[in-house]
Amino acid sequence: MSTCFLNYSNNAYVYLVEEGDSLRFALRFITLRRIVDGVRTYFVNNNYNSTYIMGGDNGDLVKPTIEIRPSGIAVVRDNFENGLNSHIWLTRKIEPGRLTFLNLDGISAARIEIHEGDRREVNESSKATERDELLEQKALQLPVGVNVWYAFSFYFPPDFPLLDNRTVFAQWKQKDERASPFLSLRYQKGELFCRVAGDEINKKFRLPQLRELRGQWHRIKMNYLLNPNLTGRVRCKLDGEEFVNYEGELGHSSLGPSTYFKMGLYRDQIETPQTICLAQYRRGPTEKDCEI
């Protein structure tokens, strides 16, 4: 076994390199991670010219959850089979007890429930908002100027309340906690739409036809490029059908040069509880990286 170092996202990480099969890698990873105090432990698979970060805390570590391509863009996969993967997600935007894990129709999923007052904030327009969202880990957040694909499956229960209230279930933001997202997916009064935003743009893209989305799994693929000069392009597909194909102004000039992703439920404050299930998360530089 040998040790090498790689600098990624301005952090020095320790990588453990060993020849052998995946199971031996996984077992050695568990043992050595316990020995190295305060440093996340990774290993390199030289055969594929890529770096793997293994996820989970039990013995089921054969499949990689994160692959750092030579381009520097991390390909991220999470099937939620082993609960929360702390290499991928932060939970500081979720009230304790609101995040659980289950198998729904044969699909491992994260279940997020929101109640009145969860992570309550008051925005610039003096409206009270609340949220329960999974937040992308800081080490995985991307700079502007990167062409990236995101994908995940979502499920609204059959009794999901169809309210005339702002409800966001996925959002992409520039680096500012209180800023509006430059991209978001919303579900309001039974209608799903994508909002594209920036200094001079606030545009909504709707599905060609209104249809019932509750009670079944659906899959979103989102592709965007946000340039430093506040131009960009956006493509979005629902169940393989493209309903957003936009190129033009994008993003906010007052915000930072990096982006991050959240998914769950964010809304204007109301009394009614709501629930969403999320599964089969993917992120990478190509649409192929979004395959299940």
User: How would you characterize the largest beta sheet?
Assistant: 13 strands, mixed
Q: Can you tell me the CATH class of the largest domain?
A: Mainly Beta
Strands, total number:
22
Estimate percent helicity.
under 10%
Classify the fold: give the CATH topology of the largest domain: Jelly Rolls
Average pLDDT, all residues? 80
Radius of gyration: 20 Å
Low-confidence stretches at least 5 residues in length (pLDDT < 50)?
1-63
The share of residues in extended strands comes to over 45%
N- to C-terminal separation?
33 Å
Order of helices and strands: EEHEEEEEEEEEEEEEEEEEEEE
User: In one word, what is the shape?
Assistant: globular
Q: How many discrete domains?
A: 2
Total helix count? 1
Quickly give the structural class: mainly beta
Named CATH architecture of the largest domain = Sandwich
Describe the structure.
By secondary structure, the protein is mostly beta strands. Helices cover 5% and strands 49% of the residues. The protein folds into two domains: 2-64, no CATH class; 89-290, Jelly Rolls. The chain contains one helix and 22 strands. The strands form two sheets. Strands 1, 2, 3, 4, 5, 6, 8, 9, 13, 18, 19, 20 and 22 form a 13-stranded mixed β-sheet that branches. Strands 7, 10, 11, 12, 14, 15, 16, 17 and 21 form a nine-stranded antiparallel β-sheet that branches. The longest helix has 14 residues, at 22-35. Residues 1-63 have low confidence and may be disordered.
